[in-house]
Amino acid sequence: MLIHGQCHCTNVSFTLDWTPEPSEIPARACTCSFCTKHGGVWTSCPTGTLRVRVTEPSRVSKYAFGTKTADFHVCAKCGVTPVVTCRIDGRLYAVVNVNTFDGVDPSLVRRSAATLDGESEEARIARRKRNWIAQVEYEEAAPHDAP
């Protein structure tokens, strides 16, 4: 299943090739203060492939907090956070925000709360390596490519 998503102004967009076809999409509503305030509800397909494209890189802020092991890609133009990345052993891993999906039947998304407070940095990295999307292509448009 190809899932397309983007921030409100389309500056940050992605295509997630969810393989194999999902019968449901698990979505974790993180209870940390950042995700709660920004509506972050995250999903990943460890066997999938993600392509992220940023049209105006100068209008994306990468925000890291807490353990500073993940970057929240916040569009400075519209304020939406469609993707989070984490570099582990030289490889880029990611999760995407289900609230930024386009054209996905909402009944396919199974939301549940996720509290990660108290998780050690080592456990957090191991969980991401196991559960996050491991095939990630992150592309920023060259300044002359931007509209």
Produce the secondary structure layout.
Elements: E1 2-6, E2 12-17, E3 25-30, H1 33-38, E4 41-43, E5 49-54, E6 60-63, E7 71-75, E8 83-88, E9 91-97, E10 101-102, E11 109-114, H2 121-131, E12 135-140
Parallel strand pairs: 3-11, 5-12
Antiparallel strand pairs: 1-2, 1-10, 2-5, 3-4, 4-9, 6-7, 7-8, 8-9
Shape: globular
- Spatial sequence of strands, sheet with the most strands: 6-7-8-9-4-3-11
| Poorly predicted regions | none
CATH architecture: Beta Complex
Compute the CA-based radius of gyration.
Answer: 15 Å
Approximate helicity band: 10-25%
| Number of structural units classed as domains | 1
Proportion of residues in extended strands:
35-45%
Q: Would you mind describing this structure in some detail?
A:
There is one protein chain. The chain is mainly beta and 147 residues long. It contains two helices and twelve strands. It has a single domain, classed as Metal Binding Protein, Guanine Nucleotide Exchange Factor, Chain A (Beta Complex). It is 12% helix and 42% strand. Strand 8 (83-88) and strand 9 form a beta hairpin. The chain starts with a strand and ends in a 7-residue tail after the last strand. 33% of the residues are buried. The mean pLDDT is 93.
